[in-house]
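I'd like us to work through together how a protein chain folds, taking it slowly. To get us started, please write out a protein record for me. Label the sequence line and the structure token line clearly, so we can match residues to local backbone shapes. Once you have written the record down, we can walk along the chain together.
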Amino acid sequence: MKQLFNEARDQQLVAVIKGLVMDATRKASSGHPGGAFSSADFAAILFSEYLRFAPKHPKWHNRDRFVLSAGHESMLLYSLLHLMGLLPLEELKAFRQFGSRTPGHPEVHLTPGVEATTGPLGQGIAMAVGMAVAQQQQESVLGSEFGSNRVFCLVGDGDLQEDVALGACQLAGHWALHTLVVYYDKNDQQISGHTGRVSSVDFPALFRAMQWEVMEIDGHDHKAIRQALDFACNLSAGKPLLIIGQTIMAKGAATMEGSHKTHGEPLKVDEISATKSRLGLDPDEFFQIPSKIVDYFQAHLNSFNATAEEWNHAIAIKKQENDVFREVYDQYFSQKPIELDVPLSPPGTQIATRVTFGKALEYMGRQSQSIMGGSADLEPSNNTAAFAGAVEEFSASNRSGRNLAFGVREFPMTAIGNGMALYGGFLPFGATFLTFSDYSRNAIRMSALMGLPSLHVFTHDSIFLGEDGPTHQSVEHLMSLRLIPQLQVCRPADERETLACMRVWGRGGNRPMLLALTRQAVPVLEGPVDVERGAYVCYDTDSGATNRPIDLMIYASGSELWVAREAAHRVSQMKNIRALVVSVVCWLWFDEQNEHYRNQILQTGVRARVSIEAGSTLGWQRFTGMDGLNIGVDSFGHSAPAEALASHFGLLPEQVTERIGDYLNRLNA
């Protein structure tokens, strides 16, 4: 905290921020000024007096993190980043315009100083929880001198109406994340009107019941804000802190103060002029930024530039002098591929791909501190129990543990994992059944948008889940998830392909991976694997006579690959034809191959083309064309043993063989 502060300067600073918010949203004819106004007092004091952040070293690892969960208040954050010297004024003037670094909602990959991509309400606070988990785990392993920072998060009324936020907050209290400080800007207004229309929750009582410290203040009273932040920064153990700031929407506006109409639309020109006069700004000047206000704002922050340099130097020295510290530090931050030297089972061995995943995860977890995550109350089913036993459980009393018991909270689990990845040093994972990917889908999408190396593990990936019935059997999920840009959706066929996919994830990178894994045992197949091509020929019925023309192409994934190979063998014997079977592990990886390779796999000159996957057939036409045979499941499943379902849906090898034979007869008729 600054030793001295000036209340008059504070009010001028808040006025300047509000002026920038008004001018940028008006210039764009788009934006959310009302909430930015109500949060401005807290944000101005936090950044100018308390936030541990070095503008010259914005990626300094020991910095405080600030997450704007109320992402629609983006112009508030952009104004602060400009005052910090991280965004030029031209970017504020280009707010919400094509090609600018000031999009409608903050994007971490685009704008310096933005710690998380936010906008979908509730996820920002969940990611902040993940950052606090990451901070506490690293501090416990590397020492308090390494990680003495905090995570601040600003939420609005809408955030705390989303269940993902409340689920994450339950875990934050349960884990006693005392370095997490959440400011709730409670202006009681949202797009449709007063929040009393939709909620009468006693938030102080609710958060205290979730094991949080709670403070209630006037969110426009600077003395009260400082007292709350002083309390936050002096917490060295115990509970996360919720500061509830009772505020007024569009505080300071000339005639629109308190109006929900300011939430989602710019102020009118006359209103802006009158508001500027009320705030002590020149009503005829736009984007007013007095140099004395910039100097006042930056004084505290710039003091951390030297701190960051000293910290980086101290870490470098410690790495040189302490071999154990260097080894552990490098496990978090070196970005070296994680070794996965797991022996393969003999061909023909029956093993579920979820079991292989569990073995690989345990092995990788023992090799590197960077592997951290857990299961949504499905450890025995997701095969994460061995990992949990190897690395111990993260808890209020054991910060060094790396297994996270998420409970039945898929959406919070996925968003928390995103926060851990954003914090740095982690390859996080979360696991559940594939059908429950619907619960966490938007957080999966956000991990792809942000370019995070998160692993989304989904077992029980088809109707072969069996007796639990259609409520739990995935049919349309795989195909819909393949639509998410930059999401590496992988459905490995056996032990070999599963291990290969895990090795790719262990290299890190800037894209999330989704693994769809079987409940049922599948045979370990023969031959080399080439999963990183996305699709590769894994079986040729005429392997000894490659000059013979190809008569049939069969494309399959996951647990249907062995069926495809068996059917190809039988059909080739019956029809005296040559068939190629292609393992389609990841559509995205295949799309990224060069044209020559894609043509080798697609073989568009071959008329007879078949796809096999125990899920929706919509989409497989890209491989089979409009005349192809697409074998799959285009209806909901049934409650029955897996073998009975395979027979009912025509997915047994002999049934697939018969269907392909009939298909070839029709083509040749």
Observations:
- The longest helix spans residues 291-321.
